[in-house]
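Milestone 3.1: sequence recovery, worked example.
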């Protein structure tokens, strides 16, 4: 039911408020999980930056996989600052952060916005810490 509600909304999105669309995106992820990905990707192509920003934000609630990371990487190249911020923050919310996110995060290090750059750096440091800890564990070294 929620999928059909969202489909109708995206087709006629100009007659609904952006807050309503954001609420539906969050509800869609909560109810449909990974199956909501095509609708979120569609929302990333909205003419309204607030809808794209909401989609980028709720993508971080999905399990980390290649398709989700790819969608967030696209959002990280958006012309709107809030969309880019939400996308990089969503990558940071994924635990563990997928290694497949590294190329998009490296590109974000040269973003015009300082917050996008800072969050990208923090997420890359988190990935590095996980890799170092796993390497140390494999080599029998103590992390302490």
């Amino acid at each position: 039911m929620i999928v059909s509600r969202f489909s109708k909304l995206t087709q006629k999105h100009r007659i609904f408020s952006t807050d309503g669309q954001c609420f539906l995106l969050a509800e869609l992820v909560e109810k449909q999980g990974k199956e909501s990905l095509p609708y979120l990707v569609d929302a990333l192509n909205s003419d309204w930056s607030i809808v794209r920003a909401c989609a980028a934000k709720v993508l971080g609630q999905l399990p980390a996989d290649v398709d989700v990371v790819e969608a967030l990487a696209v959002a990280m190249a958006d012309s709107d600052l809030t969309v880019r911020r939400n996308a990089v923050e969503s990558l940071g919310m994924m635990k563990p952060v997928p290694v497949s996110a590294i190329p998009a995060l490296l590109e974000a290090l040269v973003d015009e916005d300082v917050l996008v750059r800072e969050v990208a750096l923090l997420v890359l440091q988190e990935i590095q810490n996980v890799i170092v800890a796993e390497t140390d564990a494999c080599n029998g070294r103590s992390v302490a």
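DSSP finds eight helices and no strands in the chain. Residues 2-138 form a domain with the Leucine-rich Repeat Variant fold (CATH 1.25.10.10).
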